[in-house]
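Hi R.,

Here's the chain you asked about this morning:
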Amino acid sequence: MDEIFDTPLPDGQRTDIQICIFPHLKEFLTVDLRDDGVQVNLLNTDDIFSDRFFSSVEEEISISVKDQGDYPFAHLINLPLRLEEAVRETAMTFILEHLGVQLDDEEEFPTVVVYIISGGALAMHSDKVLEGLRSLLKDRSGNPAAGNWEEVLNRLITEENRILQELAHQDLSEAVQSDSPDYFTLWENRN
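And here is the predicted structure, written out as tokens:
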């Protein structure tokens, strides 16, 4: 698991910034390796996804929707992908801007890797995920940063797992009550 969080890019280059997102939490971690040391930040989506962010997303979506080109049906078919890209690019821009990255200087533009920390692997192997994140912080920065962030990592992993369990329980309850769109049965008698 250690290798997952500290793998080199295809050309052997190491990433400059690593972003660890816990999809069901408002908080996320960034590990900035651009300078000699390492800078770990605990960020909150409330600070990133401001009114300015949503205005920018709306503008990008508007441009994507209206840009039909010569093939309007192909445009409509590909629209969900283009909207996802617009939202993802805008979110990345705002996160990097928050970290102080100069976005207009292409030579200084950092390499970024985003880790989505959730799902079955986290629920079953949270200790290995935690160890991989610890290793990332320790290998690049020495023990002090890893020690300082251990409690935060534990808390984020625990909270993400708790929410995943609640959602799984809710999905199961809805399926049993046949309130879920994923509900199915082999035998049903409606009389």
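One quick note: The longest strand covers residues 27-32.

Cheers,
M.
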